[in-house]
Amino acid sequence: xxxxRRDFGKLALAAAPAASLLAAKPDSxxxxxxxxxxxxxxxxxMSGTADKIIEYMTELNLSATExxxxxxxxxxxxxxxYASANDAPGRGGAAGGGGARAGxxxxxxxxxxxxxxxxxxxTPEQQAAAxxxxxxxxxxxxxxxxxxxxxxxxxxxxxxILKIDNFNSFSDDVTDYFxxxxxNLGCSAMSTEGNLADVKRLGSFADKHKMMIGYHGHTAGPxxxxxxxxxxxxxxxxxxxxxxxxxxxxxSLPVTVSRLSPSSRSITTA
Length: 270
Known about the structure:
alpha/beta; two-stranded antiparallel ribbon; 9 strands
C-alpha cells in the first residue's frame, strides 16, 4: 500500500487526540479542592511498589497522595524493607499493604517495650536488623529522595503527606531523618497513628522542622489515649502548634465533628 505525504498528514492528525490522551497526566484537583489517596494502603491485595502506585493513580486520575514511607525506602534499596505486605516474601495477597518493616525497628529508642510505645522488646536479630536499617537511613543522600520526588512529579503526582508508622519509637536522629525526607519529597505535612504519650515529643520535632503532624484517629483504646477521643486531639494541639488532625471519617466522623472546637486544625481527611 502506498501513502502520499497528504495521507500521512491525515493519519497523524487522526492519531493526535489518542496520543494526547495517552500522554495526559492525572489531575484530581476538582473545584479547587485537591483530592488524593493513601498509598499503598488503599490498594488492598495489590503490589505497593513505587512504580505500581504511579500506574494505579494514573489509571484512577489521582494526582496527589498521602504516601507511606515503605515504597520510598524499598525503591531506594533499604535493607529489610518491602513496599507493602503484598510485596513481602511469602506474604503475597495479604490485605492492607502496610509493609511494617519500614515503619518499625530502625533506630528504636531504648530496649524496653515501654520505651517504644508499649510494644514487645526486639529480639537480638530484630535489633541487628534495626541497626542496619538505621545506618542505611542516616547515610542516605537526599539527592536520591529528590530524584524519587521528580519521578512522581514527572508522572503528575504530588506527594503531599508522608505517613510514618510507629513514629514515636525511633531515636532522635532517625526522627530528624523522617522530617528531612518529607521536606525533600515536597510534603507539606506528615501523618501517623499514635496516642497522647506521643504528642509532646513528636510535637517538639514538628516545631523544630516547622512541619505539621496529623494524628490518625481510631476508636479510643484502653485508657482512652488513642485519637478516637476528640478531646485527645485538642490536648495534642495544645502541646504544639504543628500538631494536627488526620481525620479518618470512616472511623470517627459521627462522634468527632460535633465535639471539636472551631479552632481545630485538620491536615487531611480519608
